[in-house]
Amino acid sequence: MLIDPTTLKLDMEPRVLAALREDINGGDVSTNAVLPEPKPGTAKLFAKQAGIIAGLQVFTLTFQLLDPSIEVATQVSDGDRVADGDLLATVTGDLRAILSAERTALNYLQRMSGVATLTRQLVDMLADTGITLVDTRKTTPNQRVFDKYAVRVGGATNHRYNLSDGVLLKDNHIAAAGGVAPAIAAARAYAPFVRKIEVETEQLDQVQQAVDAGADIIMLDNMDVPTMAKAIEIIGGRAAIEISGNVTAERVAELRGLDVDYISSGALTHSAGILDLSLKIK
């Protein structure tokens, strides 16, 4: 399942509400102390470093769930590259709601923009190779829709959204089934015919077994480059090929020359930093 703006919209409200409840479960005592009554005002969102913006829809919703009358005027769009000091958005409304929602809104926007920024870096490194960069299920629990949306904004695509989204036979599935061939045979018998079957391999003999058993996609997991080159020869175009395992920006440089279809990187979502942003009341 690919996470686009519509999918995000359908899924984000209960998660953002839960995040707000986590942060304001007994009232915002700081804001209530200094602003006992409504007070109109404006806050401006600035970038404090260069990067790719992702999550403006979530940023806006966070304020409007506390106060639907709050207006957020954005000067950029998801996917835009921003520079240190750029004005990104203006938030107008009751300052009490703005102050109470500020941290939660920034947490989402900074996190999602950090994922998009790292993703764009790796996508740019793979430009003109024909290799598609994809994410993994190594996401923050209960925040997967945001992580995977940010990956799309960064220019990569989504692998499986969850365990119901596709067949991927990993090392433990293969061990439990008694080998590559029986695992693939069981998947063929169980899964709907429209599902492709992907198999994770760690050794060349497993690659050969996966080819012989008719796997649709073969993942080369944690192999060095010479071993992957041999695996690609064994596969010989009979299956799509995905590279996985410790895929960082440094490693992408040595992988870009291989004749493969996909590179998956858990680092996009489990190791991305934040993009530094600041919301200032004027």
Provide a concise account of the structure shown:
The protein is α/β, with parallel strands linked by helices and 282 residues long.
Defining key terms:
single chain, 282 residues, alpha/beta, 11 helices
Structure description:
By secondary structure, the chain is α/β, with parallel strands linked by helices. Helices cover 45% and strands 19% of the residues. The chain contains eleven helices and twelve strands. It has helices at residues 5-23, 29-34, 56-66, 95-125, 144-153, 171-177, 180-190, 204-212, 225-235, 249-255, 267-270, and strands at 40-47, 51-52, 71-74, 81-82, 87-94, 132-134, 167-169, 197-201, 217-221, 240-244, 262-264, 277-281. The strands form three sheets. It has a six-stranded parallel β-sheet. Strands 3-5-1-12 form a four-stranded antiparallel β-sheet, covered by helices on one side. α1 packs across α3 (56-66), α3 runs antiparallel to α4 and α8 (204-212) runs parallel beside α9 (225-235). The chain is elongated, with a radius of gyration of 22 Å. The relative contact order is 0.16.
How would you write the strand order of the largest sheet? 6-11-10-9-8-7
* Percentage of residues in DSSP E strands: 15-25%
SSE arrangement, N to C: HHEEHEEEHEHEHHEHEHEHEHE
What number is the mean pLDDT?
96
**Count of alpha and pi helical runs:** 11
Shape: elongated
Radius of gyration: 22 Å
The helix fraction, in percent, is 40-55%
| Biggest sheet overview | 6 strands, parallel
**What structural class is derived from the secondary structure elements?**
alpha/beta
What is the count of β-strands?
A: 12
Distance between the termini: 42 Å
Uncertain stretches of 5 or more adjacent residues: none
Q: Give me the oligomer status.
A: single chain
